[in-house]
Amino acid sequence: MVVKIRLARFGRTNSPFYNIVVAHARTARNNRPLEVIGTYDPIPKKDTYDNSGRLHKDIKLDMTRAKYWIGVGAQPTDTMWRLLSMVGILPPKYRPAASSTPTPSANASPQADQA
After folding, report:
1. Which residues of the chain have pLDDT under 50?
2. Which residues contact 26 (CB under 8 A, 6 or more apart)?
3. Most buried residue, 17, 39, 80, 105, by most Cβ within 10 Å?
4. Residues 6 or more apart from 87 whose CB is under 8 A from it?
5. Rounded alpha-carbon distances, angstroms, from residue 86 to 57, 71, 79, 89, 114
6. Could you tell me if residue 33 is inside a domain?
7. CA distance linking residue 97 with residue 37, whole number of Å
8. Residue 98 domain-assigned (yes or no)
9. CA distance 1 to 26
10. Which residue ranges are recorded for the region named Disordered (predicted)?
């Protein structure tokens, strides 16, 4: 069975709080996981700034267990890949940048380009 590292939502309405869990891919989001390896609080607190002066979002993660699960083949979701790359466990995924050159339109005739 495929094992995923994903977020399980807790907290109140408009105030989310997530557990970072390892669970089978086919189970529901808030079913009992195989293991809880951390927490993620996406709402920055008022007086918690990081080194660059931005508000700090709280990520608590058991690094050894996360590395173990990735080592045995657990697949992180896209959101978890981003969080794990912030912590330094995985390399960042880069999205291809949108090209700045316009593509030729389908209605343009080839004879107009030659003139």
Report:
1. none
2. 1, 2
3. 80
4. 59, 61, 63, 66
5. 11, 18, 11, 8, 51
6. yes
7. 33
8. no
9. 9
10. 95-115
Domain of residue 19 covers 3-86
Q: Identify the DSSP state of 31.
A: S
The number of domains in the chain is 1
What is the per-residue pLDDT across 52-73, written as a single tens digit (0 to 9) for each?
Answer: 666 677 889 999 999 999 999 9
Question: Looking at the chain, how many residues does it have?
Answer: 115
Measuring CA to CA, how many Å separate 15 from each of 9, 18, 48, 114?
Answer: 10, 10, 17, 60
CATH number for the domain that contains residue 29: 3.30.1320.10
Domain assignment present for residue 110? The answer is: no
Question: Do 55 and 45 touch, CB atoms closer than 8 A?
Answer: yes
**How many Cβ atoms from other residues are within 10 Å of residue 7's Cβ?**
20
Q: Which residues of 14-52 are buried (b: 16+ CB within 10 A; e: fewer)?
A: eeebbbbbbbeeeeeeeeebeeebbbbbeeeeeeeeeee
CA distance 104 to 16: 45
